[in-house]
Amino acid sequence: MTALHLLVLAALLSLAMGGAWLYESRTGKSGWVDVTWSAAVGAVGVVAALLPSAGAEWWRQALVAVLVATWSARLVLHLARRTLRHGVDPRYQALRREWGEGAELRMFGFLQSQATAGFVLVLAVYVAARNPAPDLRLQDILALALFAVAVAGEAIADHQMQRFRDDEANRGKIMDRGLWALSRHPNYFFEWLGWLAYPLVAIGIAGGYWQGWLALLAPLLMYYLLVRVSGIPPLEKHMEETRGQAFEDYKRRVRAFWPIPRAGGDVR
C-alpha cells in the first residue's frame, strides 16, 4: 500500500464528483449524481484492484476487479434507466430547498463528501486485491457467494419496485410486496451486504496482513450512510410527506433495513 496510489485514487474520485456537481448545478438533473458516483467508484475501484503490487496474487487482483466492476455496472445501468425517466432525485431537491441561497457551495461540499465515502469503499477494494495469501481460501469462496446473493437480491428488489412504479394503478400507493414486505429498503440492505465480501477477501485470519482489516471500514461506513444519513432518512421523510398514513402503517408492519418479519406483523 503506497501513499501515491491512495492519493491518485482519491483525486480521481474528487474530480468525478466535481464534474457531477457542475452538471447538476447547470441542468438541475440531480438523478445523474448517483449514476456518476456509482460509475466513479466502480472505475476507480478497478484501477485500485489492478495497480501493480509486488506481493499481490494476480488472480486475486483480477477477481476483486471483477467484483467491483460487476457491482458498478449493474447499479449504473439501473440508476441510469431510472434517471432517464425522471431526471431528478427528490433527496437532492429537498437539500437545495433546505439550504436556500447557499445551496451551490453546500452541494459541492456534499458531493465531495460522497467522494470521500467512495474512497473508503475503494480502499476496501485496494487492500482486498493485495491480500498476499497464495491459495484460494474458504473465505474467498464465501465472499463470492455473499457477493452473488447481494447483487441478485438488490437486482430483484430494484426490479420489483420498477414493475410496481410502471403500473399506473399503483400511483400514490406503497410498495409492500415481494422483498419489500420484509424490509422497507431491501435494495439498501443488499447493497450493504455486498460490501461485506471485501473484508472476507482482505482479512487474513492467520495474521501477517494487517492492512486487510481496513476493509471493514467499507461495510461500517455503508451501513451508517444508508441507515443514518443519505439513504433511509431523506427518502422516508419524502414518503411521509407524500404517502401520509399509508406509509405510517407500512412502517408499523415492516422493519426499515433488516429483512426480518416483525412478530405479529401483517407481512404480505
Shape, per Cα inertia axes: globular
Radius of gyration: 19 Å
β-strand amount:
under 5%
What is the total tally of β strands? 0
Give me the secondary-structure category: mainly alpha
> Which ranges are low-confidence, i.e. pLDDT below 50, for 5 or more consecutive residues?
none
Number of domains: 1
Give the terminus-to-terminus CA distance: 49 Å
Overall pLDDT score: 92
Number of separate helices: 11
What's the order of the H and E elements? HHHHHHHHHHH
**Largest sheet, strands/sense/barrel:** none
Helicity range? over 70%
Structure summarized in a few sentences:
The chain is mainly alpha-helical. It has eleven helices and no strands.
Give structural notes.
There is one protein chain. The chain has one domain. With 268 residues, it is mainly α. Helix content is 71%, strand content 0%. Helix 3 (58-86) runs parallel beside helix 6, helix 5 packs antiparallel against helix 9 (217-229) and helix 6 (138-166) packs antiparallel against helix 7 (186-194). It has helices spanning 3-27, 31-50, 58-86, 90-99, 103-129, 138-166, 186-194, 197-202, 217-229, 232-243, 245-253. The radius of gyration is 19 Å and the shape is globular. The protein is built from eleven helices and no strands.
